[in-house]
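Exercise 7. Given the encoded structure of a 200-residue chain, write a plausible sequence.
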């Protein structure tokens, strides 16, 4: 039986290797901001490609900057949750993209036509909230709230639709960059051999 203290250390390393470096925050902000830019430029079909490319970029950056500092802890349950997180996010994104053509073609109900972007923003915020719950990262609840506030400003106050995504996305990216900077300063690379890169 593994002592509780070891389990806590492993859980801390899993948390640090996944979210403490701010890279996922940066990816989230990048995605939200990019979505606003794509709406502005009428290029929403690129959303899925940007998300996937950003996702793999983050894993590359983690191998370069995060794992040499805190190691890479792998626990089967954590891996399953991570896969669920990605699949759920992609499904919601694709569902949102599938609904968008209804807004531009045919004759959808008035309430749907008037609320489509608000509903889409809320779906994305729901995914962010689920991730926050799974991984116990309270700041992601704030990110979800920012997303809802952004689309609410568009829905009821007539704010620019692209800006309703660009502004929250930029704020999230700034927070992520600040977290990354603090992480790098607080976790210098230890001497070679002192970081155990895999815990199963």
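Solution.
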């Amino acid at each position: 039986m593994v002592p509780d203290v070891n389990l806590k250390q492993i859980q801390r390393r899993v948390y640090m290797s996944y979210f403490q470096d701010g890279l996922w925050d940066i990816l989230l902000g990048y995605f939200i901001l990019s979505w606003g830019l794509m709406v502005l430029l009428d290029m929403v079909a690129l959303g899925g490609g940007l998300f996937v490319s950003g996702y793999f970029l983050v894993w590359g950056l983690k191998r370069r900057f995060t794992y040499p500092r805190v190691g890479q802890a792998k626990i089967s349950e954590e891996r399953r949750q991570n896969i669920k997180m990605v699949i759920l996010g992609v499904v919601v994104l694709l569902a949102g993209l599938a609904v968008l053509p209804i807004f531009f073609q045919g004759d959808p109900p008035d309430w749907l036509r008037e609320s489509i972007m608000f509903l889409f923003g809320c779906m994305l915020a729901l995914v962010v909230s689920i991730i926050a719950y799974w991984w116990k990262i309270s700041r992601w609840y704030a990110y979800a709230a920012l997303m809802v506030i952004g689309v609410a400003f568009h829905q009821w106050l007539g704010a620019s639709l692209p800006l309703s995504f660009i502004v929250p996305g930029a704020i999230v990216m700034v927070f992520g960059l600040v977290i990354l900077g603090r992480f790098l300063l607080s976790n210098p690379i230890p001497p070679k051999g002192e970081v155990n890169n895999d815990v199963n």
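Remark. Residues 10-186 form one domain. Students should compare their own answers with the one above.
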